[in-house]
Amino acid sequence: MPESVDAWQLIAGGDATLFAIVRLSLAVSLSAVAIAVLVGLPLGALLALTRFPGRSAMIVVLNGFMGLPPVVVGLTVYLLLSRSGPLGEFGLLFTPAAMVIAQALLVLPIIAALARQTIEDLWSEYRDELTAMGVSPAGRVATLLWDSRFSLVTALLAGFGRAAAEVGTVMIVGGNIEGFTRTMTTTIALETSKGNLPLAMGLGIILIGIIIAINAAAWGLRLWSERRAG
User: Fold this and answer.
1) What per-residue confidence (pLDDT) applies to 82?
2) How far apart are CA 207 and CA 28, in angstroms?
3) How far lies 173's CA from each of 34, 77, 142, in Å?
4) Which domains are delineated in the chain?
5) What is the rounded distance in angstroms from the CA atom of residue 161 to the CA atom of residue 153?
6) How far apart are CA 144 and CA 135, in angstroms?
7) Which of 7, 34, 119, 207 sits at a 20 to 30 Å CA gap from 158?
8) What sign results for the dihedral spanned by CA atoms 18, 23, 26, 29?
C-alpha cells in the first residue's frame, strides 16, 4: 500500500506536524494521569482502610465509573467550562488544560478503583501485624502503598493507556484546533475523513507502538516483581 509507505516515511523523516501532535498528546495524557494519581491513590486508600456509612455505595459507583462513557465526561467538562458554566470565567474551554481535566476525570476512577482493591487485599494480609505494631493510619497508608507499588504502577499504566487512546472526550472539550489542541486520536479521525491516509496511518502506527510499549512495560514489571517476591 502506498499510504503505508508514505506513513513510514513521515515517521522516519521526523515530520514536524506529526511529532508536534505526538508531543501534545503525550503531554496531555501524562498530565492527566499525574492529576488522577494525586487524587486517586489517596481516595483508593481511604476506601480500602476505613469504614463509614455509604462506603459500599461509593465503591459500587467508583467501579461503575471505570466504564464511564468518554462522551459523557466530555459533555460534563464542556458544560462546566463553557461561558455559561460555573468555571467559564477561566476561559479553559478548547485549550489543552480542558483536555487534561477531561482525561483526568476519565482516568481517575480506574486508578482509584484498582488502588482500593490492591490496598484492601494487602490490608487483609497485614492487618494484624500493623495493628500489633501500633502503626498510625498515615503510616499504614504509606506502608501499604509502598508494598503494593509494583501493582499500582500497573494500574497507572492502564490509566495512561486509556487516556492516550481517547478521542471523544478531547474532541468535545479541545475542539481539535490545528497546532493547538489536535491530538493523535482526533487527528486520525479527522485526516481519515479527509482522505489524508499517510498522516493518519503514521499517527496510528505511533499510537499502537505506545500502547504496546505500555503493556510490555506493565507485563515486564509484574514479572520482575514476582521474581523478587519469589
Assistant:
1) 93
2) 14
3) 19, 7, 36
4) 17-184 (1.10.3720.10)
5) 12
6) 11
7) 7
8) negative
**pLDDT at 5 (0 to 100):** 64
Cβ atoms of 68 and 109 within 8 Å: the answer is: yes
Q: Taking the CB of residue 230, how many other CB atoms lie within 10 A of it? A: 5
**For 92-123, how does the pLDDT look when each residue is reduced to its tens digit (9 = 90+)?**
999 999 999 999 999 999 999 999 998 888 88
Compute the distance between CA of residue 184 and CA of residue 102 in angstroms, rounded to an integer. 16
* Amino acid identity, position 63: N
pLDDT at position 13, please? 83
44 vs 215, higher pLDDT:
44
Helix (DSSP H) and strand (DSSP E) numbers for the chain? 10, 0
pLDDT at 26: 92
Yes or no: say if 174 and 98 are a contact pair by the CB < 8 Å rule.
Answer: yes
CB 117 within 8 A of CB 45: no
What mean pLDDT, rounded, does the chain reach? 86
Specify the residue for cell string 491513590. Answer: 41
As a whole number, mean pLDDT of residues 123-137 equals 79
DSSP SS3 for 23? helix
Query: pTM (2 decimals)?
Result: 0.87
